[in-house]
Amino acid sequence: MAIEQAREQVAALFGARPREVVFTSSGTEAINTAVWGALTHAPGSDVVTTAVEHSAVLDAIGRVPVEVTVVGVDELGHFDPEEVVDAIGPQTSLVSVQLANHEVGTVHAVAGVAAECRERRVLLHVDACMANGHVALDFASLGADLCSLSAHKLGGPKGAGALLVRRGLRLDPLLVGGAQERARRGGLEAVAEIVAFGVAASELADGGLEHEADDARRRTEAIATGALGVDGVVRYGDPTDRVPHLICFGVEGIEAEPILLALDQRGIAVHSGSACSSETLEPSPVLEAMGADADHSLRVSVGWSTTDADVDAFTEAFPDAVASLRALRA
User: Fold this and answer.
1) What pLDDT digit, counting tens, does each position of 309-326 carry?
2) For the residues 39-57, what does the mean pLDDT come to?
3) Is the pLDDT of residue 274 over 60?
4) What are the φ and ψ backbone dihedral angles of 195, each rounded to 5 degrees?
5) Residue 200 has pLDDT above 80, yes or no
6) Partner of 69 at 20 to 30 A CA spacing, among 141, 216, 230, 264?
């Protein structure tokens, strides 16, 4: 009963029917389930995606022997919906695009892609893990067949996610061996995490999402103002059409790792690149696709617990950290 109540809460926040919600262990599992299910349900010879997708999407596609068409992006990280549509061919079985980028925060226009996919009867997966809980998302209006979600991105627990599956679409499950989730995902349910996911979703209903988004945008704009006041700092991604809680910028002449360490010594945690790849210290493939400096990026985000004092701490520490590192370099 608790799981079904959570299913209703998650469905209500994202404009879906409760039966369209399949709980998973994470957004990564939801993405893998979508890709696997789509490619086994509608076998074809090619998949269309973009150069700025999360590694969960690109790696999941890479495990299946299909031809992949990768659509590029502009300097703000936007893909052209018409270019995505033009890449769809008679053998295309899946189109997978993101709703918002996980590194620079750019929000994409996917409505036109969804309409063309429906017209051509090609399955569309939308990775909404970065956007969920931060921008309005209505699954019915989105027009996608599959949409992946992550609980911890909206203040819920780690270890919970969901895949929205359009009503009437039956896919082979990624995890087999049980009839849980109406035989769509085998394995004992993580009840506590699922319940907490539902509670977090309910907190964002009835204006909660808009209130948090306004606070987050105000704080990230304050962070951007402070950071861009330092010489040689540039902002990446669309400054307007973006998720409200994240910004990304680069620092000329200093690689990301020493800045991360300098801020960490001051009690401030930021990322370089995506959260899933920040420990590898590899150049960002997203920034490379945008034609930006992929070795010198910082990804700064705020959450529901972030305060104005936290923002002030960053804007005070960041210029000093950069100045100290540049002095050492000199």
Assistant:
1) 999 999 999 999 999 999
2) 91
3) no
4) -60, -45
5) yes
6) 141
Structural domains of the chain, with CATH: 2-203 (3.40.640.10), 208-329 (3.90.1150.10)
- Exposed/middle/buried for residue 117 (C-beta within 10 Å: 0-12, 13-18, 19+): buried
Residue 225 and residue 217 in contact, taking contact as beta carbons nearer than 8 Å: no
pTM comes to 0.94
Q: SS3 for 92?
A: strand
110-115 long-range contacts (CB < 8 A, ≥24 apart) are 110/81, 110/142, 110/144, 111/142, 111/143, 112/81, 112/82, 112/85, 113/81, 113/84, 113/85, 114/142, 114/143, 114/144, 115/143
280: left (phi over 0), alpha (psi -120 to 50) or beta: alpha
Alpha-carbon distance 310 to 308, whole Å? 5
Residue 270 Cα to chain centre, angstroms: 17
DSSP 8-36: HHHHHHTT--GGGEEEESSHHHHHHHHHH
Structure tokens at 206: 């009835």
For residue 278, pLDDT over 80 is answered with no
Q: Which of 70-84, 115-129, 160-174, 269-283 has the lowest mean pLDDT?
A: 269-283
Q: Which residues pair with 97 in a beta bridge?
A: 126
The Cα 274–Cα 286 span in angstroms is: 9
- By annotation, the residues acting in catalysis are 276
